[in-house]
Amino acid sequence: MPWAVLLGLALAPLALAAEPDAADLVREARAAEGWLHEIDSLQLHMEAAWTKTPEAIAHRRAEYEKQFPGTEITAERFWELRPRTTETIEIVFDHERARKLVDHHDINRNLRIWDGQRLIAYSVYFTHEQEHYAFDDEPQRYLGNTFLYESSWPRAAGHSFWWLPRTEKQLRSSHPAPEDFERIGREMFEGVECYVIETISAPWQRWYIGVDDHRLYGMVNLSISGDMDWTPLYRDIAARHGGSVNTPRQWKRWVESLPESKLAMVKRETTAGMKRQAKPWVIHRLSDWTEIAPGCWYPMRQSYSFIEHPPDGESFESGRRDFRTTLAEVNQPLPDELFTVEMRDGVKVHDWGHDPPLHYTYDSKMTEAEYAAIVAEARQRDEKWQKIKRDQQALVGKPAPPFPEGAAWINSEPLAWDRLAGQVVVIDFWAEWCGPCRNDFPTLAELHRRSEQTGITVLSVHTPGSDREKIDKVMEEFEMSYPVCIDVPPGAEAKAWGRLFDQYRVYSIPHAVVVGPDGRVAAHGKLHEVLQTAHRLVGEMEAKDQP
Prior knowledge:
Blueprint: H1 3-7, H2 22-31, E1 42-52, H3 54-67, E2 84-93, E3 98-103, E4 108-114, E5 119-125, E6 130-136, H4 168-174, E7 181-189, E8 192-199, E9 205-210, E10 216-223, H5 231-240, H6 248-256, H7 260-275, E11 279-293, E12 296-308, E13 316-330, E14 348-351, E15 358-361, H8 368-395, E16 408-410, E17 424-430, H9 441-449, H10 451-454, E18 456-462, H11 468-477, E19 484-486, H12 499-503, E20 511-515, E21 521-525, H13 527-545
Parallel strand pairs: 6-14, 17-18, 18-19
Antiparallel strand pairs: 1-2, 1-13, 2-3, 3-4, 4-5, 5-6, 7-8, 8-9, 9-10, 10-11, 11-12, 12-13, 14-15, 16-19, 17-20, 20-21
């Protein structure tokens, strides 16, 4: 389906008149959200509905079948497979307190409250047995970025609130400057005549601002596929400027060698070329603008859609969430009852505000001695975990342990560190029976496919003892074509799954390790954490290669 139809646009732009400046339109849209910082309280109640397309349901079902092999995938348990679900949402705050309720009716219910001193959260799932409370001494963990951004408003400007304080620098970096927008023309958006403005460079956005009232009626976030091959674009731009490149690394070196007079032009051409490949992936719609208090304009109806762009098919809307505000009150008294939670016996509690965190079952009749025992157990658990982290950190800077003799290898002959010298290597520790491990497989597979561009070598270590057929099945499902070492059993005194697991001090999975080009351990931790080190090491290697 053409993008214009997905966006609800007239296919032919309207005739241009004397148009206002794009930067001024951005400033107006952002100023229209400023009343949020001038009020004493706000209470919003919304009714919302998720609508999923058949294409989206089929795609999600396939993902679940990979992630949960052997599990019956039904819409009763996995609500994302339902064509339509409804919600009730409440957002309430004043200068010291905040409340957010997202009631997904027969699916789950999430309540988060800051009563002025402590964060209390309550979550319950109706599709399976899961229920818990959470405590915290800071509001950021459970309120933070998501508190006010459940719907499509406010998104024009960056905001700093008492539950999410942000510096001016952070606010500027999170949103494009008004001067970074350019005017494209006029178009009809959802039945409203709008000015169309777009960002000149990434992050790419397209805004639709009403011609008559200068209110924001639409915002489209555009993105580029992560596996896009930019080599043809690089080659073409370099050739126009007398250069010759055939790989992303050559392009980077060539760009770094350019004089300032040519660099700015090359950057503009590169940005323009990339922007031509950008496609809409989220569409926000705002309508029924109402003055809910003097000077406080709010869109009573909102929605956002996700657009999928399959490489071998037409673009389609995968899901849409519509919001209808039923109550919007400003500067009204907020009763204390809104900021209380009734605690029920037998429900799990996670107290993240305690050091170390506590995990126990709530009991209104709990004695001081019983609570003290919970604290003591948490301290023992924390001391054990801290020792593991110290042991892992002690390996950093030391030669990577050798791969064990007799280990079976998949997708490779047996490797040794002398053969991997000069490479930045990411090692993933996993098992075919580990559900959370599967979350990292797509990232690892993509890193391996793009190893020439990223400069990162991927390999993994599997626990001993699994049937080879089960390992092969998972690898086939997730297209894992990088080398896999199946570890050998550990020694008698070891407490890890395998010998290599023990040597790297890996006692929980998924876990990742980075080995630098010098063959020494450079980082331990979750994959997304250690990848920062891997990319830094690649950058340092490339810098050394510069003439």
